[in-house]
Design goal:
transmembrane, transmembrane helix, globular, mainly alpha, about 180 residues, 9 helices, membrane
Length: about 180
């Protein structure tokens, strides 16, 4: 073990043990919001399509398609807002579109982990019910991690960071359950 970890273990300091989770730069609030939006949308659509007994390929297509459409709408609205704020009489340039598309990437990136079990089911490596459970679990777990990092990266205590993780993961689970129940 490296020296900082040995010291942290010796003193029982969870703050020092968890320090590698702190990013070198603060996570932007809009990035966290986009990640949460993307995850909740993705996993809610997975739940709704599973309850509707769709084949796993359709479940994957609808879930990914919904997130990509939501991301596109987010980029479009951000470009419109930029154009309005600039009071531009000329059309918005491709550079602005590209900038907003990159800024909204956390919405898509957050969904990568829960997509993997569904891809494994499409490839017939996992059975559909297992892939569904894994996708939802990974999605809720990722939501909890986002909640944890939101506070942990602001140097909050471990207890507050864990409460944020439980709250964010729980909120996602409630939204997913509601979406599943409605369908």
């Amino acid at each position: 073990m490296t020296e900082p970890y040995q010291d942290a273990l010796r003193t029982g300091s969870t703050t020092r043990l968890l320090s590698p989770l702190r990013t070198t730069r603060a996570i932007a609030p809009e990035s966290l919001a986009q990640a949460v939006h993307g995850l909740v949308l993705f996993v809610a659509v997975v739940g709704a399509t599973f309850v509707a007994d769709y084949p796993v390929g359709k479940m994957l297509l609808y879930s990914v398609g919904s997130v990509v459409l939501f991301w596109s709408a987010h980029v479009y609205s951000a470009v419109l807002a930029h154009q309005h704020a600039a009071k531009a009489s000329l059309p918005t340039g491709l550079a602005t579109v590209w900038h907003e598309a990159r800024r909204a990437l956390p919405l898509l990136e957050a969904c990568i982990a829960p997509v993997i079990p569904l891809l494994l089911a499409v490839l017939e490596i996992l059975p559909t019910p297992v892939a569904y459970g894994a996708s939802v679990s990974v999605g809720v777990g990722t939501l909890a991690l986002v909640g944890f990092l939101a506070l942990h990266n602001r140097r909050a205590s471990l207890r507050r960071s864990l409460v944020a993780a439980a709250t964010t993961g729980g909120f996602g689970a409630v939204i997913i359950a509601a979406e599943t129940f409605l369908h």
